[in-house]
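Example for tutorial group B:
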């Protein structure tokens, strides 16, 4: 599946660069675009389109591409260009292994309550609004925001940065689901359950709910990837 970069949307992102157009800031913009589902696996990233939209040099953009390639979000194909990476079944299982290690530990090691759950509450509200409007891609984004908010409870910049990359990869996995509503909608209710347990400062229950959530999501996604492979493609 290929998709064109929305140049008009990136022009609006130019303001995010501020006065210093650094490769890190450009990479952050593109990572966010991937995490929000605007650039599906296989999308070709045009240097001219993105560079002109953001008003940056070719060297700066290439450095941003290099950073995102290191994060396994992009891949450079010789004589063809730079593409959003297409993940494998092994990538899916690895992503969920990392998610368990990070998210469950973040909940398990929460300090003394109360916790600042406002970002998690906002993510659930975002998901409820998206579901009401039938905006299923946005519901997937809200789901990502919720789990990022859970990890943010650890108050660790390093974990926060690591989770940003993992969740951007996760969005690439979500594109495998032919019916995003049937996949994402049930997990909204499960986010509410996890949030309720955190509000009650029941860390044990919250971790159990979260672990079951991750197990079920991984099984669904691995099954879908396996089905795609059986249909004739080793990659999505």
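The residue assignment follows.
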């Amino acid at each position: 599946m290929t998709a064109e970069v929305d140049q008009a949307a990136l022009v609006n992102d130019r303001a995010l660069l501020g006065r210093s157009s650094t490769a890190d800031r450009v990479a952050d913009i593109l990572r966010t675009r991937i995490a929000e589902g605007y650039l599906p696996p296989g999308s070709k990233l045009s240097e001219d389109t993105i560079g002109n939209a953001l008003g940056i040099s070719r060297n700066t953009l290439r450095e941003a591409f290099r950073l995102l390639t290191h994060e396994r979000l992009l891949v450079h194909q010789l004589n063809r260009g730079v593409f959003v990476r297409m993940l494998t079944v092994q990538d899916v299982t690895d992503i969920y292994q990392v998610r368990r290690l990070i998210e469950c530990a973040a909940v398990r090691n929460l300090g003394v309550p109360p916790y600042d759950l406002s970002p998690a509450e906002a993510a659930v509200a975002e998901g409820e609004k998206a579901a009401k409007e039938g905006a299923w891609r946005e519901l997937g984004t809200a789901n990502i925001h919720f789990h990022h908010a859970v990890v943010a409870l650890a108050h660790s910049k390093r974990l926060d940065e690591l989770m940003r990359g993992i969740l951007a990869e996760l969005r690439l996995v979500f594109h495998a689901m032919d019916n995003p509503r049937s996949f994402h909608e049930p997990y909204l209710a499960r986010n509410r359950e996890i949030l309720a347990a955190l509000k009650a400062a029941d860390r044990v229950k919250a971790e159990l709910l979260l672990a079951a959530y991750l197990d079920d999501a991984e099984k669904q996604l691995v099954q879908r990837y396996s089905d795609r492979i059986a249909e004739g493609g080793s990659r999505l």
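Residues 194 and 206 are 5 Å apart (CA to CA). Compare this with the pattern of hydrophobic and polar residues in the output above.
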